[in-house]
Amino acid sequence: MKIRTTQLSIILWFTLLIVISILTIGALSFYFFSDTLRRNSLDNTNQVVMQLNRVIDNYISYMDNISLVVISNNDVQNYIREDNSDQALLSFSSTPNPKIVMRGNVNSLFQSIISVRKDIDSIMLLLDNKTIVTDHPDDKINPYAQWPSAAKSALNGSSLSASLSSSHVQNIIAGKYPWVITLSRNVQDVKTNQHKGVLLVDLNYSVIAGLCSEIQLGKSGYVFIINNEGEIVYHPRQQLIYSGLKSEPINQLKNLPNGHMTAEVEGREVLYTTNTSLYTGWTVVGVSYPSELFYNRFELEYYIAMIAISCFFVSVIISYFISVRITRPIEALRRSVRAVEGGNFDFDIPTNSTDEVNGLAQDFNIASRKIKDLIAQNAQAHEQKRKHELKALQAQINPHFLYNTLDSIIWMIECGEGEDAIVMTSTLAKFFRLGISKGGDIITVKDEIEHLNCYLTIQKMRYKDKLDFLVAVNPEILPYRTIKLIIQPLVENAIYHGLKAQDQKGMLKVVGYQDGNDIIFKVIDNGIGMTSEELADINNSLPTSKDQGGVGVTNVRERIQLYFGALYGVTFESVKGEGTVVTIRLPVLTEDDL
Amino acid sequence: MTREGRLVLMLAGASLVLAIAITVVFRVNAYLNDGTGNKPRIVVVLKSIDYSLAFWQTVKDGVESASKDYDVDVSILGPLSETQVDEQIRIMQNSLLDKPAAIVLAATDFDRLVPVAKQVKAAHIPLVTIDSFISSTDADTKIGTNNYQAGRNAGAALLKYLVPGSKIVIISQDRGSSTALDRESGVRDFLKGKAQVEETFYSSNDAKIAYNQTTQLLGTDMDVKGIIALNDPTTIGAAQALKESGRAKDVVLIGFDNSLTVLGFVESGVVRDTIVQKPFNMGYLGIKIALDLIKGKRVEPFIDTGSQVINSQNMLLPANQQLLFPITK
Fold first, then answer.
1. Which residue in chain B has the smallest CA separation from A314?
2. In CATH, which of 3.40.50.300, 3.30.565.10, 3.20.20.70, 3.30.460.80 is domain A398-593?
3. ipTM above 0.90 for this complex
């Protein structure tokens, strides 16, 4: 759609704004949420591995203490001191062989420890003379097993004084191959400090395995333990490691005693969190999969997408209705204006929409009505003009005047006053010719005066001595223009209403001159005049009984005002019994003004 | 309808369609990934479910570890004895009825399990064979020890201790399984021209029978210098007999597998070398590869889980400890 309407703009921008806001908020929330999850998970994993190490430390420490107790135990010391080779034990004697007794005591000691702690697989005292005492008196030595002559050195800088092995198979006892973690300690005669042998405390591997396998790090996460030499102490899938089906970045982890690192394994991101115990030297490694953290990531993305689409949907619809409410009144306004252009003024705009458009509509309605009124007024004025002209036209025919004059002419002819008849006839002809003036409204002042003169000539010939007239018009104003049929009707008025009623000779004077930008005509008679009421009436254009269907005062006044405005017109002055002066005021109109 | 009205209707309609499309994609995705749709069920049919046989116990551990790691349902079935071929065939046919997602099979007989294997393939169920395979090509893949190579390794191990041309007896466990057949060919092929290999004894996978056969052999034949026992019970029987005969010093016994009993004999030297397989890996990979097949991925036709020569010198190396003494859950 190429043409951009306001409506379209509103819809597009509104919708765009909403959707971009939602998506931005969604993306930001998603990012921050994801980030927070990661941090929390890292924290959590840190806690877990640290905790596990502490538990293990406590456990080993406990075992260490047991081993310390054992080597300093009296029974043990006594036993190691004497020659306790099997030869000695086998010597036949009736009294209980003290060696056997001592050995028995050590046995009992070991057994009592074992019975209390099920997690100890065995306690073994291996003496340099190749004798062994264990918790189980019937245990036989595996002749093919390697004999530990001295305990390996303990971990540097640790308070653990025993030597801690990695997990391994113990094969010292014939026929048994348990998985254990061995705590070994040198045994000395406390009196002489002579090295006598080694004490081994074998911890069940299943204890450590149990502790570690309980740890849940997400759905697929786990922990494993390596010692300070990088040997695996525990791993939930140890078999896979050695057969190469699985591998852990041991080398890198050895260099990261306390911290975390990420790697990519089989396309998945893996997080390794480490914690190393200063006591055991073991490093607990927590393995977790960050993708599992955000296990409902897809759900969240889905919901954000759904919300965005819903908002899009809703905003499109709402913005459509908003835009409609804005543009529809404007459209209506436009239609109204069009209608008015077309001349239809009865179109009222409904004003029930937004305030701005409302005001505009109201103003438009008012303007429209005003135009309508003006046009009506104009039409009316035209009407009036036409009516008046019609009347004037009618008056031009002036039946009274016409047949009176024709009578006079006939009478003159019958009386043999042929010359007068000719004059009267030609004057009458000229009178009507000037009155019609080829249909135009505007004539020269000269023609208007000519027209008047014709009338007066005819009236003089009829009334003879009874009427006297004088026309004195300044020749300068003769070229000006005027509307026709304004002076003669007033003079006619003056004759019939003013002069005819009186007995004495009537005197009629018509003057015309320029007064500034106006021209003034005055019709002065010495007739019967008017009373003040009559005067008032006539000046206010109120109908009087004196109007007899001719072109009255009103007609002349109104025509003048119609053409020239309210400043001009006809005014009367009169004194009852003395006479009347009618003043006609017109603007100066030259040929150029028309 | 104004132009703008139509545009709005189009946009609203488009967003509705988009919403539905995304929902559908999401639901389908969730169903596939989450596994709240059904977990695939895999049936494992072993040669024997006698778990006193350490080998199969370890295979079972491998299977169970993989089922946890890969989140699948697993049923472990099989006859009580490795020689109960008909029973195994019946178990296979029963399993077919439940339409499992895949079947993992350790065949008790090289030839006789072929028809039921064809039935499995006809039902469009992926078939993985582990340890002992079938003669046809119906299985999608074979996972196990390269028994022929293992046989050759056994021959090589024996020859290390003997002079060329020595008299050698092979005691095999059965006449029919691919394991036994391949190992024997491996031994014979390697020793051809290097040693004098006598006729093979068959222990029917019974230590007692192997014991009797060995006792008799050692009692009657003074020239025999070497014995190769091709599997665990056979090795146990032969070793016991050799130990009791007192001739352990001059007759070299090479065995297979790593039950505690065998290892005891290895430690004491009665069994000079034993060829150890990786049953845990077989079980584990069986499930892993079966899952790959279910997902439509391509797999190798043969996956060699490998074998290791173990003796008293190397048996306590950390890597070997894991192999010989598998930690059972």
1. B12
2. 3.30.565.10
3. no
